[in-house]
Amino acid sequence: MDVPPEDAADALPCGAPTLDDLPDGLLVADRDARVVVFNAAASRMTGIASGAALGRDFRDVLPLHDAEGRDWWKCLAPYDGLGTRTRHPERPLYLPGGTELLVTAGYRRGRGGRVERFTISLRDALHRARLERDRADLVSTVAHELRSPLTSVKGFTATLLAKWHRFNDDQKRVMLETVNADADRVTRLITELLDVSRIEAGRLEMHRQVVDLPGEIRKVLAGRVAAGDAEDRFRFEARGVLPEMWLDPDKVDQILGNLVENAVRHGAGTVTIMVEPDAHKEGAAVSVRDEGEGIPPEAAQRIFRQFWRGPGGNRRGGTGLGLYIVKGLVEAHGGTITVRRAPGGGAEFRFTVPAGAPDYAT
Asked: What is the pairing mode between strands 271-277 and 234-238?
């Protein structure tokens, strides 16, 4: 979240206690260039404690230089320069140790253009670089995942249009079924991308109603069997009596479907789904286990990130977005999800969801 320095300064009289909640670093200097605000994010980015910064000249607290090594404050002369300047746009600057920060500055001026308050906003350049890499990964992934099915669709439709009368009905059906399957694949990818966008923007809409959680699990497993999976590949266990669960049924189906798909695709042996009351708070806990190789302990913290595909890479397909979406959907219900080694080997994904309440707004 970008906080205009001028707006942050205006909020100081009544908002100072909340400035530590800002994700961006904030330094405010008074008319004498002494630091009067140095929030927690600024301390984290610079390694300087707030108490050590307050009351000092801001140029000593934040000795920034540009890429050519020039002292930025000498170049800028914020208190002695043009009296008409109101702000400086964001630019990369560096601390003496080489830490890169994205810096924005704004002025609050009094009579005659004198600087009454100078406000500096800091952003973590590494965080920005990670975001840019994530965007580049997203574009690359989307291009790769779309290219294969669209090439197939184009090839089969062009062949049918050019040589329709050369094929019998069975051959035409096979080609059209392939086109249909590839169109479904593209639709799934677009749906995943929209889900990612809504999760990141906090715009997931929840439509809660009473959900029979064991019934939803049985429905998902029946769909897998109908699609061709062996019935004995799955085992379902329901333990105890669940409270009345107010959940979004479509999102619950999506969570369960992704976890079961993940167990089938990346695991081995029997896939066990167990549902039981949550022992720690009113709600339900669902576990999905497989009997495969499991998740390496060092990967457990990364598995819910975007584009995580594990040691197999692209070998087993998928965009690497499924588990990220699952985590977002579970958390949208107010729940949590974890992964660990299953008791009999393999991976166990366990998520909990509170009983919730009806969403009258939807």
From this structure: parallel
Whether residue 147 has pLDDT greater than 90 = no
Place of tokens 């000498």: 74
Extract the tokens encoding 287: 């576990």
- Specify the pTM: 0.59
Confidence of residue 4 (pLDDT cuts 50, 70, 90): very low
Residue 149 near residue 183 (C-beta atoms within 8 A): yes
CA distance 348 to 273: 10
CATH fold for domain 128-201: Helix Hairpins (1.10.287)
What is the four-CA torsion angle of 132, 137, 138, 139, rounded to 10 degrees? 90
* 242 three-class SS: coil
Q: How many CA atoms lie within 13 A of 19 on its CB side?
A: 26
| Domain 209-354 is found in CATH 3.30.565.10 | yes
> What are the structure tokens assigned to 323, written together?
């588990």
Q: Which CATH number fits the domain 5-124, given the four candidates 3.30.450.20, 3.10.20.580, 3.40.50.300, 1.10.468.10? A: 3.30.450.20
Enumerate the CATH 3.30.450.20 domain ranges in the chain, comma separated.
5-124
Amino acid at 358: P
CB atoms inside a 10 Å sphere around CB 273: 23
Beta strands in 77-213 (DSSP E): 87-94, 100-109, 115-124, 209-210
pLDDT in tens, 341-361: 888 778 999 999 998 777 644
307 three-class SS: coil
pLDDT at 302 exceeding the cut of 90: no
Give the number of residues written for the chain: 362
Q: Tell me how far apart the alpha carbons of residues 250 and 350 are, in angstroms, rounded to a whole number.
A: 19
